[in-house]
Amino acid sequence: MSTGVGVSSCCLSGKVQEGKPAGRVQTIGGLQTYVAEPSTNSPAKSIVFIVDIFGWEFPNVRLLADNYAKAGFTAYIPDVHNGDSLPIEFLQDVEPPLPVRENLTLVQKTAATAKVGATLGPWLLRHREAVSKPIIDGFIREVRKIPGTDHVGAIGFCWGGRYAILAAHETDPALKLDAAYACHPSMVAVPGDFEGVKQPLSLACGSKDSLLDEKTVGQIKEVLEKNGGASEVEVYEGQVHGFALRGDWQNEKDKQAMDQAEKQGIKWFEKYLA
Question: Per the database record, which ranges form the Dienelactone hydrolase domain (predicted)?
Answer without folding.
Answer: 32-273
